[in-house]
Amino acid sequence: MNILKILDKLSDDTLFSKTFSRTENLNHISSIGKKAAITAIPLGMGSMLAAETKNENSADSTYFKKDALTDALQLALVLEYLEDEYYKIGLNTLSLIPTADRTVFMQISKHENAHVNFLKTTLTSLGVTPGAKPTFDFTAGGSFTPFSNYSQFLTLAQAFEDTGVRAYKGQAGNVMSNKTVLQAALQIHSVEARHASMVRRMRANKGWIELANGGNMPPATNPVYAGEDLMVQAGFNTATAFGNAAGSASFDEILTGTDAQAIASLFIV
């Protein structure tokens, strides 16, 4: 199953009101990426998902017929495969991660591995064969050398985590009518946001995003942060009330499925 086609299927950009476009930035993207859309679901919910899928009536199941649900889980599995493999390779590369930082990435790696195992079990419980792990290219075609340069390893980790948090929010409208999935997704989303905050601080950045730049990031990552400089939220001008920096940081904007697709595709062969 093609992850990019699934991203398109799950995306419904009309659910969100936009006053800006990222098309121009995305046309010039040269490298960066990570997971998108719905992330893994907490352990122990496989049977609940199966039961809820069975019991939904047609009016409530627009996005949650069995095929849509399992497509979302297959997507989540591919994305968790990506992070799981990235951190495993990093941890297994001698002399890459300083001793003081290994504890952090060991814990993050355990989270991602737990997500992979859970998703495979959940898909099996729904009568679906879990997708095989894709082939990943973490150099993005030679643009990065994350496993020989620790600074680049951290840069890519930040971009992966920041992209995932934004892209996941962009899919929120697709899970709202299923309480079990929504609850699980919110639980995982907060963990992913903590990953992002931790990695950002390891790079001497603030734990949150201010304005359109991710903080000490190369230009190639601009699409990850496009639109993060919005000052008006639901008609409220945050800049007038709090100043530009604090105002823009008060709300974390979404990343649409289309944008996430353009970013993630660079790391999937």
Automatic annotation (TrEMBL):
InterPro entries: Ferritin-like_SF. It holds the Pfam family Ferritin_2. It comes from the Bacteria. This is Ferritin-like domain-containing protein. It comes from Chryseobacterium formosense.
